[in-house]
């Protein structure tokens, strides 16, 4: 389906580790004053400031987190950066630097690595991020990527997971379930392709779903929006494993319960249509689909007027006392206990 | 040889990702004032200070960087931290925090992960390091570890790779080649074990070599020693790939050449004996063995009196003009061009 048609193959062994590092880093430039020393020494050096440093890290493994038969390498590079930036934005911080460690088996030629780094570079340019270091090595099987993102925030701006209070409103950005359904569409096309490689897929009805799966964007804009609205969240988390799983984290760490409303969950029309087609429950997909990389946060109830009607934000419920548990109120008015049935990486193997 | 005799096996899938994270992090405590928020949110938060932040990252993959048939998991955890701290110390900085990302296939039970983290914890306690985050996931094959280390330094104390000047002395800490030979001994024992599992290995003559391979120590002490001696290096690097490879980095980045002397290379008697036994050239092993995790640095020639005779330090040569190249002067007085024949991870696959 999505195959590398480029016949040119440069062996990585030929180039060597240092050659490869030089080759892939020469296209990256430094844009933050705080990046004093990037790639090329034992460690990178960041300038001190009166702000606080925020650090997050993620590991992506071929066959577990991505499938290169439908994930083009450039998209993988872009997405891998987004996954990490999303964590930094979920602290209400500004992301400034990343380190990228890469392991590849000898089935990958240089041209594949170039594609991957083209995606990383595009993400760095778009999100104003400096690549400051990493490690490059061989793997015995497949590709894996480990990215660490570093950000900055004023101490008073940082938002953690443990500050939600009863009566706080629960707010989400964007919409949910599309990335998960995008994956289902791509998986289906992969099966069709196996049976008939000549088949031309018609993906017109799934463009948004596929884009959300292959090229997610991290919500860099929300910190600014919240400042404009003069709202400071009491807690915040990025939605990588589905709303249920993230609410579970917020409620556990804040020692509270919550009530969310099925009819308030923001869904794109393509999500609703695809759920019908795949015979899936759209609420389950929105709550447990994962990979949306939207933000979920709580705000004091008196911020209601500032939040409501904003096209970027949806109020989906409110925080309750801890003994009330985590509840979903269905369209029919029924109370159902939420379960953290987020995507569990350790159960995939 | 070194096998887990513990019959207890707790499946990781049973525990789930969040259960596993809670389980392995509860034994770690925070010891730095600068660690404001460690594990448990989207990102860790470090306090601002007037110092500069130093960041380094390394990726270790089973079958490429380690072999669990003779590397006990606790040692692996310890060593993985050392590899990263060594990079921070090579900046003349103090290491303060690490993030640890781990991927494991389902062949590993919880008890194996506990062993690994016991080693990481021992390293953290011994070296005064806070574990502040990470990622835990499944792999399709084997184990891999990605560690990022974060340190602090005053701007004026930082030492890079690009400051070496002609006539500067080249100084190394400790001795060389032992870790490489330790690996050869362990590899040989593994082969013996395959043929006769009842064989009891006699490793008495190789204790230092094996310790250097399985439980290396990073040179945390050198920054303090240099302060005591009132010496500031003009350049510094940690020796992970062998002296030749590191000199190649220093000379390339500093735009200089160098001359080192075969008879000045510090070798432990066990290294000399094992080289005879394995019919290896001890100079080659010292120059290209790798995994010593000692420091190599350059100092102005007027620091000679402060360095000479110090039991931790050996002067092995001096920096020259770039057009002189990188030269080894043999015991017989012959000049041989050095080659960066360090361990190349990308050629292993």
UniProtKB/TrEMBL annotation, chains A, B:
This is Thiamine-monophosphate kinase. Mg(2+) 3 binds at residues 42, 87, 238. Belongs to the thiamine-monophosphate kinase family. Mg(2+) 4 binds at residues 42, 56, 87. It holds the Pfam family AIRS. GO terms for molecular function: ATP binding; magnesium ion binding; thiamine-phosphate kinase activity. Catalyzes the ATP-dependent phosphorylation of thiamine-monophosphate (TMP) to form thiamine-pyrophosphate (TPP), the active form of vitamin B1. Its EC number is 2.7.4.16. Keywords: ATP-binding, Kinase, Magnesium, Metal-binding, Nucleotide-binding, Thiamine biosynthesis, Transferase. Mg(2+) 2 binds at residues 58, 87. ATP binds at residues 117, 134-135, 161, 240. Residues 40-152 form the PurM-like N-terminal domain. Substrate binds at residues 65, 291, 343. Reaction mechanism of ThiL seems to utilize a direct, inline transfer of the gamma-phosphate of ATP to TMP rather than a phosphorylated enzyme intermediate. Mg(2+) 1 binds at residues 57-58, 135. The keyword ATP-binding applies. InterPro entries: PurM-like_C_sf (IPR036676), PurM-like_N (IPR016188), PurM-like_N_sf (IPR036921), ThiL-like (IPR006283). The keyword DNA damage does not apply. Coiled coil: none annotated. Mg(2+) 5 binds at residue 241. GO terms for biological process: thiamine biosynthetic process; thiamine diphosphate biosynthetic process. Pathway: Cofactor biosynthesis; thiamine diphosphate biosynthesis; thiamine diphosphate from thiamine phosphate: step 1/1. HAMAP family: TMP_kinase. PANTHER family: THIAMINE-MONOPHOSPHATE KINASE.
